[in-house]
From TrEMBL:
InterPro entries: NAD(P)-bd_dom, NAD(P)-bd_dom_sf. CDD domains: SDR_a5. It comes from the Bacteria. Residues 7-192 form the NAD(P)-binding domain. Gene3D superfamilies: NAD(P)-binding Rossmann-like Domain. It comes from Bacillus seohaeanensis. This is SDR family oxidoreductase.
């Protein structure tokens, strides 16, 4: 299975490409914003393609040619304004979903926010609400398609070393999770077809990732 990783140069994305390249039967295609980011992925043996998420749908669709699945793990980051939140976390995600349709790629994994329900938008601080709203509508857009989607809602992301132990469910208590473990959850989701058409929250826990994925 060949997987286009959108947002490959992000912190989750780098772990994900590494894990994909280490997995039997999986191969990564890293979508990056500029050529300077390529050496990291080339050293892993991964193919790279340079596309900015603010480009058009056809540009993203061209990047998706020849792949079997797309993972959207891009984000505008905490230090950008509402404009970039709209352009990357919402419009970039929607364009990537539409590009999957154009390219004929059915499998799509979306990395979302922990809680993207409307109640979560209303309950969020004013500085965070635009991000939750962007993720809410991106998730809604994906759900409305006939793509084989999985939506992953990770808890508070940390840069701690992954433990390989998680808690997964439709709704779990808020908690932290290392980005490394989120990347492992993505790989496990791609390898398990029972995750198709499902979404779940994930935080650090006591079950192995494989056990937790099998239980959803």
């Amino acid at each position: 299975m060949k997987i286009l990783v959108v947002g490959a140069n992000g912190q989750i994305g780098k772990h994900l490409v590494s894990f994909i390249q280490e997995s039997d039967g999986l191969q990564a295609k890293a979508m990056i914003r500029n050529e300077e980011q390529a050496p990291f992925f080339e050293n892993l043996g991964a193919e790279t393609v340079v596309v900015d998420l603010e480009q058009d749908i056809d540009s993203i669709a061209k990047a998706a040619e020849g792949v079997d699945a797309i993972v959207f793990t891009a984000g505008s980051g905490p230090h950008t304004g509402k404009d970039k939140t709209i352009m990357i976390d919402l419009d970039g995600a929607v364009k990537t979903v539409e590009a999957a349709k154009v390219a004929g790629v059915k499998r799509f994994v979306m990395i979302s926010s922990f809680d993207t329900r409307r109640e979560a938008i209303q309950a969020s601080p004013s500085s965070f609400a635009p991000y939750v709203a962007a993720k809410h509508y991106a998730d809604e857009w994906l759900r409305s398609t006939n793509l084989d989607y999985t939506i992953i809602h990770p808890g508070l992301l940390t840069n701690d070393k992954g433990t390989g132990l998680v808690k997964i469910g439709a709704e779990v208590e808020r908690g932290e999770i290392p980005r490394e473990d989120v990347a492992s959850v993505i790989v496990a989701s791609l390898e398990n077809e029972t995750t198709i058409g499902k979404e779940f929250q994930v935080v650090s826990g006591t079950k192995t990732i494989k056990e937790a994925i099998n239980s959803i």
